[in-house]
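Bug report (template v2)

What were you trying to do?
Predict the complex of my protein with 26W.

What happened?
Run completed; filing so the output is reviewed.

Input:
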Amino acid sequence: LALAPVSSPPVSVDGFVREFLRELNFGQGVALSASTVNDQYLALARTVRHYLMARWLETMRRQKETQAKGVAYLSAEYLLGRQLGNALLATDLTDIVADGLAQCGIDIADLRAQEVEPGLGNGGLGRLAACFVDSLATMSVPCIGYGIRYEFGIFRQTFVDGRQVEQPDSWLALGAPWEFPHPDSAQEVSFGGHTETYTDSDGAERTRWVPAWTVQAVPYNYMVPGYQNGRVNTLRLWRSVATERFDLRIFNSGDYEEAVRSQTFAENISKVLYPEDSTPQGKELRLQQQYFFVAASIADFLEDVLPEDFDLTKLPERIIFQLNDTHPVIAVPELMRVLVDEKGLAWDTAWEITKGCFAYTCHTLLPEALEVWSVELLGRLLPRHLEIIYRINEEFLEEVRERFGDDELRIRRMSIIAEHPERSVRMAYLATVAGSKVNGVAELHSQLLRDKVLPDFNEFYPGKFTNVTNGITPRRFVRLANPGLSELITESIGVGWLTDLERLRELEPFAADEEFRARFREVKAANKRRLHAVLTERDGVSVSDGHMLDVMVKRLHEYKRQTLKVLHIITQYNRVVSGEVAAADLTPRTFIFGAKAAPGYKMAKDIIHLINAVGSTVNNDERLEGRLKVIFPPNYNVTLAEKVIPAADLSEQISLAGKEASGTGNMKFALNGALTIGTDDGANVEIRQLVGDENFFLFGMLEPEVEALQAAGYVPSSYYESNPELRRAIDAIASGVFSGGDRHMFDSVVGNLLQEDRFLALADYAAYIEAQDKVDAAYADQEEWTRAAILNVARSGFFSSDRSMRDYIDRIWHTPPAF
Ligand SMILES: CCc1ccc([C@H](C)CC(=O)N[C@@H]2O[C@H](CO)[C@@H](O)[C@H](O)[C@H]2O)cc1
């Protein structure tokens, strides 16, 4: 029976309606008349899958056929966002589906709104992974994204009396139509136990791991559709289940709980995402999660993706495992274990292969965010891997000695094993020793990695350190999030810019065109009205017409300095309530915040409480005449970002110089026509260089100045003493103005600012306020503002994740687009 290649359903309204109703009736098991919105959404999702299936299967077939070199992206997080809109865009089915559904009396907008986004990430790192796999599919580069299918993603944030309260994110509850489980391709993953040496058949001394317990890793495949290029790559996320799901013998003995203990124990591994995004808690379950998905991924690639007889010494020509930060770096000793213990390769051969197969991206500058695992825990959970890490370290330090002689200080500094405070493995060092390349995510970041974070390694490995500045996918964050702007762009410069974003440069001349500026402003105004509708429906808050939207959306962290933003709002408030400035003379502004705090990060939660407290005071103070508003919608996520960012006028990127590795929100705002007020930190530097100083509100100390001030000894209270507006702002908080007279409600925040202020918010306050006054003045000239906004869009094409992928391919992966 010659099987015809899988073909997609007919690309017509009728064809779609037939497919949809068949899916609703036979797949969902309901009649249209009795179907719920969720039934309709699930049926639609599955119908759209059908249109992508032929492409997916064809991509897999050609991958298997060509065995072209590809990327295996190892990431503990993927912040994917909703899938339906992107799938419709990739297949160019949006209009057909909207018409077809309308014929069935269904508004596509209701089904889009029904989708719960998979929140399988915390913030920047997770979203970057999602943008990267989108770009690789659109650029026809072979790639498998590997990760964890958390049953519960990033918590849902609610506010109770202005305080963050976390709710579990049961994103799977209403069905998960975009995933394809493959229990038959499960991989066994082992833990614990001990190692033993033995002599093998040809008399060689060998080591084997005798684990104490195992779990099953079940793969769930997700489509990663390329943009209208007939290509669909795969994202493979692992779920943990018990090897022995149910022990009937114990059950029959009446100990029901014990009978299912191993099941619950195993399931815990992929149960929930760790909500920290900068301070590792060093929890054993976190290490179990990291090893679980890494071991399953390596076994999957070596056993199921590679052909039977693949010559493993050629592995570096076939795959590059990209380590998305240190979280998957246990993959290095895991590949060594498989190659030496299971495949019988010699250590040196295995090490050559391993060094050729890995590369490491670092996403942080905070010393506390660099993961270290205690030798005690590693030895208990992964005894064989600890042995392998010890040997890698010995041989590495031997090389260091050869190069630098017995420089014990250097040896101790560079050792993968840290002796203090407890013997532990420095995962960033292991990644650097094993990786063929190490990159930062923005020019400044990569320079600080070379000079400050890993200088010894930069000296020891000339040419290993490189940079690839982050990027974002314009398909989701321009075309899908901002259809109005996309239409205006296409009308002006034609199609093609979505996959060649540098072509936005052709918009430059339009900045001088008054009519175009008016259209550009109308698009922004329409996005503000849309945001108003969304927030009114979602949270019962309204966005005032004619207000400048000043937006700060990112995780809550002291180095990102949301406190500085709060001090600006209070300063404006004080200027009016003190009578210095008439409310009528204020530039009407609405300050929009979006930020989740790691549940264990008390200071971050107190800052959220302060923002909400200041917000309700400002919003209800008649004296402001509604000219200043503060909005803090709870549960900031990808879906809300897609509504807020296109409506923004001002993008707040105010981290202390030298602390934000890159930032990616900053890029999304610039590409959606917002102007940036920011420090020279992370990718802000490159944004300012490309859009032009005159189209960017720069303020604050540069990184070397920060170093100098910290070295000289920083006394935050001296800034409080010497700057009356700053003093008045802090005194307002301390005197209970925003806490119903309770003078101690925000002692933690005020105390920290005056005594420690680790991220120098008070030192940058004056420059920030000055820059904000410039923003007010600039906003008064709407023509000039619009011209600058258009130039921000025109000159930000560089920040496409497609360009980032081209840089990774040229500098690190050497995986050209294939077939
Ligand atoms: C708890 C352990 C931990 C530590 C660090 C992290 C991430 C690396 C934090 C993160 O998301 N970093 C952000 O990565 C973005 C993508 O490169 C950058 O744009 C941001 O500047 C950086 O903060 C997650 C979890």
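What did the reviewer find?
The domain at 492-704+778-796 is CATH 3.40.50.2000 (Rossmann fold). Residues 37-66 form the longest helix (30 residues).
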